[in-house]
Amino acid sequence: MAKFHVAMFPWFAMGHITPFIHLANELATRGHKVTILVPRKAQLQLQHLISLHPPHQDLISFISITVPHLQGLPRGAETASDIHISCSHLLAAAMDLTRHQVESSLRSSKPDIVFYDFAHWVPEITSQMGIKAVCFSVVSASSLAIALVPARNVLVDRPITEDDMKEPPPGYPSSTVVLRGPEVRSLLFITSPFGDDGITFYGRITTAMKNSDALCIRTCRELECALCDYMGAQFEKQVLLTGPLLPDTAADATTASLEDRWAEWLGRFEPGSVVFCAFGSQHVLEEDQFRELVLGFELTDLPFLVALKPPVGCDTVEEALPEGFEERVKGRGVVYGGWVQQPLILGNPSIGCFVNHCGFGSMWESLMSDNQIVLVPHLGDQILNTKLLAGELKVAVEVEREENRWFSKESLSKAIKSVMDEDSEVGIMVRNNHATWRHLFRKPGFISGYIDRFVHNLEELVNHK
């Protein structure tokens, strides 16, 4: 079997770069060479994810990309973790200014395929070099299908409006994974400029897909078959699926262990009794909503570990906590403002429930875990992922929202209790449905089978002239 060389240029965000690295590991394990183009800071933070043993680890290399400074970006900002989400369009503009670095690197390394996502201009480079361009979407097909084909025709060039998103386009295959009412406004960001040349987010992503040689989505047919077929038909492209694309946590446990502070704290509680909450590396809550959240955990009367960034206007989580909160929950609840080892925490036997934002990484980690799932989505793709898990698959419960999309401490507590109560009808339903899907995903050969088929499809793509 001929080996090929893949270059990767992901969006400058940890949640995007991480699955690219997971895919690189899988490709290198099968003997293929991978070159990853990322900012230096991201390389230093994520290179530990290259978990291969010789000789395969030598097949993965990094090329550092220098991110230029733009007015409005903090000095030294290189990834989305370094900025407020409102500055993402500036980071996209900075990414566009790295085009000459990317082109130079590709001319030097001469890969057979380039994987990219937000860099819509990559196909313009690769087409001149005879390199195949694969647009790799690390989000679910659910969030791609309704978010990126709202205007009846994916080739539309006019600006997208709110009216375009009030009804799914013709042929859209789901009555569950749809946006209703105020949820529609969560996707209006796609009409905003997102890059150096004034291109919108919608234009950036649809252009990236339209000009690719193939589409690639981090999902599986068992989960999103109809939506994957719909995307392929809309873009008239072959759709390659990687499957869940998660590392082997059992194997990782031999090389990584949970920090002592958390292992010891969790060890005080009964198996399956602790509620863990995390909202990803980017989202920052308003101070009032942050307080409502932690008060909701207090209301559950359950042990809990909350790992969130400090809310807007606060330097630490401690200064945002309600008066008397720490004393009232002492011994059973912790609110932490730093980074935690989320996969290892989810695998701890004391954890029984995972409260998360349903970002694409947390979505898969939820599905693969043994924990009950409660969802508090904030942005468009998270809302659509939640529709898939809570509405379509019925493996999770979404926290009820007010008209303004805020939630109350009572609604959060109610959702958590509904899944943690062993006699709850809702809890039993989502637990059983989750177990069925988890059994499928963990079946021997399921994940590796997806990667094997994916690699076979790449070989055909490379050989097709």
Automatic annotation (TrEMBL):
SUPFAM superfamilies per record: UDP-Glycosyltransferase/glycogen phosphorylase (SSF53756)
Family annotation (InterPro entries): UDP-glycosyltransf_plant (IPR050481), UDP_glucos_trans (IPR002213)
This protein's UniProt keywords: Glycosyltransferase, Transferase
Position of the signal peptide: none
GO MF, one annotated term: UDP-glucosyltransferase activity
PANTHER family listed in its UniProt record: GLYCOSYLTRANSFERASE, UDP-GLYCOSYLTRANSFERASE 79B7-RELATED
Entry similarity comment: Belongs to the UDP-glycosyltransferase family.
Name of the molecule in the record: UDP-glucuronosyl/UDP-glucosyltransferase
